[in-house]
Recover the amino acids of this structure.
C-alpha cells in the first residue's frame, strides 16, 4: 500500500473512531467515501447485485461486478448484520432490491439477502452478510483483510462461503 493511501485510510479510520466516540443515539456521520455500485451507504440500492470471484495471493474470493472485494465480519452471527452507523460507513453493506446473481465460481444456492435495520436488503453468502471496505479504492484490493476494526476481524470470503483467514 502506498504511503498516501495508508495516510488516507488512517485518516478515515481516525475520523470514524472520533465520530463514533463523540456521538450518542442515532445521529449520522458523513464520509467522503462513495460506495461502489450495489451498496447503499449514502445511496439507493441497485436493482440486483452480481457476486463473482477473483484470485490473488489470498486465494479465490468474492467480489462485486466491478471486481471489488467483499468481506464478512466475525461479529455477525447468523444472517443478521450487526454493522451500522460508523461501522457501515467504513464497511458499507452490499445491498440489492432484486435477487443477487452469481458469476464465476459463486454458487447461486449460497446467495441470499437479509433485512437490515434501515429496511434495505443486504446480500448474504452462505448466511454471511457481505460488506465492502472503504479503504479499498480499486478492484482486487484487500486492504481490509484481517482488520480488527469495530471489535472483530473482517475477512474476504471464499466461494465455499468461508472466511479466508490469511494475509
Amino acid at each position: 500500500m502506498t504511503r498516501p493511501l495508508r495516510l488516507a485510510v488512517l485518516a478515515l479510520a481516525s475520523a470514524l473512531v472520533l465520530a463514533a466516540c463523540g456521538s450518542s443515539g442515532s445521529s449520522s456521520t458523513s464520509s467522503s467515501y462513495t460506495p461502489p455500485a450495489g451498496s447503499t451507504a449514502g445511496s439507493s440500492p441497485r436493482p440486483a447485485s452480481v457476486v463473482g470471484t477473483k484470485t490473488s495471493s489470498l486465494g479465490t474470493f468474492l467480489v462485486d461486478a466491478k471486481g471489488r472485494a467483499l468481506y464478512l465480519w466475525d461479529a455477525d452471527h447468523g444472517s443478521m448484520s450487526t454493522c451500522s452507523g460508523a461501522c457501515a460507513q467504513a464497511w458499507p453493506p452490499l445491498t440489492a432490491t432484486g435477487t443477487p446473481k452469481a458469476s464465476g465460481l459463486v454458487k447461486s444456492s449460497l446467495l441470499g439477502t437479509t433485512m437490515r435495520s434501515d429496511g434495505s436488503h443486504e446480500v448474504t453468502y452462505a448466511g454471511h452478510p457481505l460488506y465492502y471496505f472503504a479503504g479499498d479504492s480499486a478492484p482486487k484490493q484487500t486492504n481490509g483483510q484481517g482488520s480488527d476494526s469495530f471489535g472483530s476481524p473482517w475477512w474476504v470470503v471464499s466461494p465455499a462461503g468461508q472466511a479466508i483467514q490469511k494475509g
Observations:
- Residues 1-46 have pLDDT under 50 and may be disordered.
- The helical segments are 3-22, 86-90.
- The chain has one domain: 37-164.
- Strands lie at 50-56, 59-63, 71-73, 101-102, 111-115, 121-125, 128-129, 154-157, 163-164.
